[in-house]
């Protein structure tokens, strides 16, 4: 039986990944911050606060997984500006501890552990070219991106040292499991509440930002395909299609049956971010070719699934 260890198992991606691996017959271990967190049924939970505890190396040595998926992170670019040192620890230093632990096992002769790092389009900051691919200049413009860039570099270094480590450069990926700290869920939850008269207006920051939004279950499928690929490598995972935040608002409000969305949205300067990329668009040709990966849900499908979920929650 293949044994997987997932950090960040209670998050959006972690929960979808746990479900996918369990359906494939894996033994799934997950790292949780505290005992109160809801863990997918069937996952063997290990309580460990990565922010303060360095026991992840010990856990890797004990579990000896065949595949490690590192999804734990301070996941919001906005929050990374409030907590840059915590971001450096969770999104950067922890990855060093994990890769060092894998290398110790590797050097003892067990050389087939696959390490998959959830990297991010934020490593490109304000991108130098469009669309971005695996060769695009890494030049982060946020504490989140800088920490993810360090981790991306580490994965490359450990791969050169013989460890089967891959970095998967994920573009924004959404689902009804997104928290409202992300703009998509903030919008779909507000659209649902406004359509039912439970909220008047929605406050947003940069509505001109264009993002390459994909469907989260498709992106965890890409992580598994990466782990199972013949050799470790870096892959961009994206749809290649970008939409503005404004377009997301229009689509979500239309789905919720609200016609006057322009009157409902207020722009707040406090929600603007330094270093916010005006446009992100990923070229996933390499993953399409080598991993036989492709997205299953487009922009309209994602918006509809999220709005319908939020309407159902309120009914
Ligand atoms: P992330 O930037 O990858 O963490 O994803 P977000 O969903 O937080 O942000 C996506 C884009 O939406 C960014 O360009 C934000 O600047 C923009 N945005 C505009 N208004 C908001 C808002 O109210 N909240 C958030 N989270 N993002 C916003």
UniProtKB/TrEMBL annotation:
Its EC number is 4.2.1.47. Keywords: Lyase. Transmembrane segments: none annotated. One of its GO terms (molecular function) is GDP-mannose 4,6-dehydratase activity. Its cofactor is NADP(+). It comes from the Bacteria. GO terms for biological process: 'de novo' GDP-L-fucose biosynthetic process. It is an enzyme of class 4 (lyase). Residues 5-306 form the NAD(P)-binding domain. InterPro entries: GDP_Man_deHydtase, NAD(P)-bd_dom, NAD(P)-bd_dom_sf. CDD domains: GDP_MD_SDR_e. Belongs to the NAD(P)-dependent epimerase/dehydratase family. GDP-mannose 4,6-dehydratase subfamily. This is GDP-mannose 4,6-dehydratase. Catalyzes the conversion of GDP-D-mannose to GDP-4-dehydro-6-deoxy-D-mannose. It catalyses: GDP-alpha-D-mannose = GDP-4-dehydro-alpha-D-rhamnose + H2O. The keyword Metal-binding does not apply. The keyword Lipid metabolism does not apply.
């Amino acid at each position: 039986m293949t044994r997987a260890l997932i950090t960040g198992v209670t998050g959006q991606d972690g929960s979808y990944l746990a479900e996918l691996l369990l359906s494939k017959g894996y033994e799934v271990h997950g790292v949780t911050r505290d005992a109160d967190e809801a863990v997918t049924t069937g996952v063997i939970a290990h309580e460990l606060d990565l922010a303060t505890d360095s026991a992840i190396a010990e856990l890797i040595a004990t579990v000896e997984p065949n595949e490690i998926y590192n999804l734990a992170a301070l996941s919001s670019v906005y929050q990374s500006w409030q907590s840059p040192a915590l971001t450096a620890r969770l999104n950067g230093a922890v990855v060093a501890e994990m890769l060092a632990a894998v290398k110790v096992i590797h050097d003892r002769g067990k050389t087939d552990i696959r390490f998959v790092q959830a990297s991010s389009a934020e490593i490109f900051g304000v991108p130098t070219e469009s669309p971005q691919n695996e060769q695009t200049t890494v030049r982060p413009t946020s504490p989140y991106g800088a920490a993810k860039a360090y981790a991306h570099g580490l994965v490359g270094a450990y791969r050169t040292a013989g460890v089967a480590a891959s970095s998967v450069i994920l573009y924004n990926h959404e689902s009804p499991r997104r928290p409202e700290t992300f703009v998509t869920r903030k919008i779909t939850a507000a659209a649902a509440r406004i359509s039912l008269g439970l909220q008047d207006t929605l406050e947003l920051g940069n509505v001109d930002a264009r993002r390459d939004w994909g469907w989260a279950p498709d992106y965890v499928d890409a992580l598994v395909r990466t782990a199972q690929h013949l050799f470790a490598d870096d892959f961009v995972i994206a749809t290649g299609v970008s939409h503005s935040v404004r377009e997301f608002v229009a689509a979500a409000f239309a789905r919720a049956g609200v016609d006057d969305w322009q009157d409902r949205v207020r722009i707040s300067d406090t929600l603007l971010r330094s270093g916010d990329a005006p446009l992100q668009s990923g070229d996933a040709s390499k993953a399409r070719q080598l991993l036989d990966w492709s997205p299953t849900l487009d922009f309209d499908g994602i918006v509809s699934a999220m709005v319908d979920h939020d309407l159902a929650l309120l009914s």
